[in-house]
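Tokens in:
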């Protein structure tokens, strides 16, 4: 958030905090062989959360004469060799507590994979495009209602998932929303239009006075914020 504030022309108000956060993340990463940190103790390492850290360091490097660019490069090299699922070719959604990939396709999730791709757009555009092509091959469901699935196998007519929300006819609300960001970034307007149509069916736009928002946002406000971010995804310069 601070790095994007700076890209948008923000002043030096948060510079010291930004510097401190990046120094701390960089130092702690190198305390682990995997270069990865847990979001929560005694849980898996969430790869999208690690990508937030790497995207931050990448943005910092662009704003500060390349500082931490080497860290970003080292992490990416490790991710491309050690964190890729052998069956799907996708970046892992989860790692073990000590940073090892889990060789189980059920741990590759649509929402996590799409979010991985979104954060990769800040770090390595080519890698992001390659990964999103694989995400589309595996998770895109393009009949009747277009969207992205959460799971790599099986049919879920109706299921609640703690990460993805309510799975309906295989479709993942969170996975579809994050994939919208990658589609917008790639300027694939044909697919983007279909995904926005799905979002309209699911969320139902309403207008009150001068404000317009998704009716579903009354119970899932963060979802509306995510969709707004994904609808405006672009390359930061």
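Residues out:
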């Amino acid at each position: 958030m601070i790095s994007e504030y700076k890209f948008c022309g923000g002043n030096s108000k948060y510079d010291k905090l930004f510097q401190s956060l990046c120094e701390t993340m960089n130092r702690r990463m190198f305390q682990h062989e995997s270069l990865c940190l847990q979001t929560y103790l005694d849980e898996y390492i969430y790869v999208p959360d690690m990508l937030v850290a790497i995207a931050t360091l990448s943005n910092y490097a662009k704003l500060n004469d390349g500082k931490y660019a080497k860290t970003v490069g080292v992490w990416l090299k490790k991710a491309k060799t050690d964190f890729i699922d052998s069956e799907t070719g996708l970046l892992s959604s989860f790692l073990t507590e000590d940073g090892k990939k889990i060789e189980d396709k059920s741990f590759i999730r649509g929402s996590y994979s799409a979010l991985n791709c979104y954060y990769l757009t800040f770090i390595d555009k080519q890698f992001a495009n390659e990964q999103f092509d694989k995400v589309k091959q595996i998770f895109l469901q393009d009949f009747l209602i277009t969207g992205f699935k959460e799971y790599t196998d099986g049919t879920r007519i109706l299921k609640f998932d703690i990460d993805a929300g309510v799975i309906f006819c295989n479709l993942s609300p969170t996975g579809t929303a994050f994939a919208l960001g990658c589609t917008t970034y790639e300027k694939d307007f044909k697919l983007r239009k279909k995904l926005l149509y799905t979002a309209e069916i699911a969320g139902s736009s309403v207008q009150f006075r001068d404000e317009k928002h998704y009716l579903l946002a009354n119970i899932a406000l963060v979802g509306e914020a995510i969709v707004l971010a994904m609808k405006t995804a672009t390359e930061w310069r």
